[in-house]
Design a protein that fits this description.
Length: about 220
């Protein structure tokens, strides 16, 4: 599979790129600062660019089988729906190039379209995670757009509870209501599996460790 990755130099994105290449996929990574991508591989193509600026999406999508977005910019998202604007440009370009599969990583404190967060997560968002509210509002707008206007694409949203860059804590699985605090590598490994999971298409679920609460 040829995968186009946005956010490849982020903490989860770095692991995703490495794991995807190790699994035999080819990766085209878009990076604002390519030197931050620590992985080198014959099947890795790094393209300099930013979703906040002009991008030749037709060229980036040429020959691609799937698109992955692992973006996050708390400061920019405080005042602007950066990634909603980007996804609204990306989806028509994907249609034009015949690319159907899209995985978008959102925060676990971003609510599904038409749903409210469980009370414990709502309280966390209003208190210790209050400074990330712009990021969650942007993610929620992306999910609402995909759900209302892009159901012709095979999209899936991973609402990840990303915690730290420690070692693996186990295997994450899709959960319709609970979210575990996962390590970067576990979230990346789960997202790679999710990209090929037909049962997850058109879902905006979280992820939880198998030893935790059940869906």
């Amino acid at each position: 599979m040829q995968i186009l990755v946005f956010g490849a130099t982020g903490q989860t994105g770095q692991h995703f790129v490495r794991l995807a290449l190790a699994a035999g996929h080819s990766v085209r990574a878009v990076a604002r600062t390519p030197s931050k991508l620590t992985t080198t591989h014959a099947d890795l193509d790094v393209v300099e660019g930013s979703v906040a600026g002009p991008l030749d999406l037709d060229a980036l999508l040429d020959g691609v089988d799937a698109v992955v977005s692992m973006l996050g910019d708390r400061q920019a998202q405080e005042t602007r729906m950066v990634y909603t604007e980007f996804v609204r440009r990306l989806v028509p370009a994907m249609r034009q190039q015949g690319v159907r599969r899209f995985l978008y990583q959102a925060g676990g404190l971003s609510a599904k379209p038409g749903k409210r967060l469980p009370i414990p997560l709502r309280m966390v968002r209003r208190t210790i995670a209050k400074s990330f509210d712009g990021q969650h509002r942007d993610n929620e707008a992306v999910m609402q757009y995909l759900d209302a206007e892009a159901r012709d694409l095979q999209w899936v949203v991973h609402r990840a509870g990303i915690g730290s860059d420690g070692p693996s804590k186990g295997r994450l699985r899709r959960s319709s209501w609970w979210i575990s605090i996962g390590t970067f590598v576990d979230c990346a490994e789960y997202s790679l599996r999710l990209l090929d999971d037909d049962d997850a298409v058109h879902t905006c679920d979280g992820s939880a460790y198998a030893r935790g609460r059940r869906s």
